[in-house]
Amino acid sequence: MRKTILTILGLLLIVASFFIAKLLIDNKNKVKPIAPKVVKVIFADTVKNSTIPIVIPANGNLTAKRRFELYAEVEGIFKPGSVLFKPGQEYRKGQTLIRIEDSEYYATVQSAKSDLYNAIAAIMADLRLDFPEVYPKWDAYLRSFDLNKATPKLPEMTSEKENYFITGRSIVSNYYNVKNLEQRLSKYIITTPFNGILTEALVNEGTLIRSGQKLGTFIDPSVYEMEVAISKSFASLLQVGETVALNNLEGTETYTGKVSRVNGSVDPNTQTIQVYIEVKHDNLKEGMYLEANVDARDEENAIQIDRNLLLETKEIFVVRDSVLDVIPVKPIHFSDTKVVLKDVPDGSVIVSRPIQGGYAGMLVKVFNEQNN
């Protein structure tokens, strides 16, 4: 019985092997279907070289062109004035910004002026006797001397004898001592150098001000400057007085500025040069962030395309007889989204939109809007 079962299983195995072998032979002889050629539809443009203006985008914050940092050079109590010392307060030229208590120092100045007056008065009798020719001018000086006004300049000494006589009585040294004290006395009052507005106030009336302390910031709000960094390769192309288009971040406001200064040195770290753009407008405020478009130069016989169309090998795709190919190009200038190219022959059909998986030799068909 066991022998019979093994015989039957052997026959079944032989029959199965025969059918499997026949199936494999039949599949091997089947003709494989030919894959249809896929033609990719692309967008393309015909090249026509022209003059491309190279515009350098830049941005920065506005700073008042005339800016006055307020620092104290003397010490004392901040006396209240007719106008509050607060941010946003407007002042006219020559108006008092800060007045510091100076009564003690004023007394010192008056004492020194009195000593000078007494020293000159003490030599008048000797001048009348020994130097009658110079006596009238010193007498006139003494008569014009007013303790409540600035000390007038000493009369000019015309001879060595007069010079030795006056200097020997310490008149000259006393005079310059008084002028030094008067100069320091003037620092107790800070006045505005121009019409403007206070943008920062770091002290209040009644507080003690110390020497060297920063008090605030005063600006002229009529003229602003924006500092931008430009590549050194364009340094020779920028000229003072060149017009610059400016706009805010939202793009809702546009302004016209001009290049007021160009720095003469290149930043060694960034290899950029600082350019200062002057702009005037009633809507502008210090600290505003603006974008600028600086016209650097016009590039002749060039084209401008999207940056993502330029391959890493500095080549671009062209279409020749419905076949994709590449040609080498010369990039001249890169912006955020565009690139200016040269050495692209007129009449070349270049790809105008990126092709996913594109390669040289790919069959393509140029999309024609008129036929669709």
Automatic annotation (TrEMBL):
Species the sequence originates in: Formosa sediminum
Gene Ontology CC, one term: efflux pump complex
SUPFAM superfamilies: HlyD-like secretion proteins
GO molecular function, one term: efflux transmembrane transporter activity
Matching PANTHER family: HLYD FAMILY OF SECRETION PROTEINS, MULTIDRUG RESISTANCE PROTEIN MDTA
Protein name: HlyD family efflux transporter periplasmic adaptor subunit
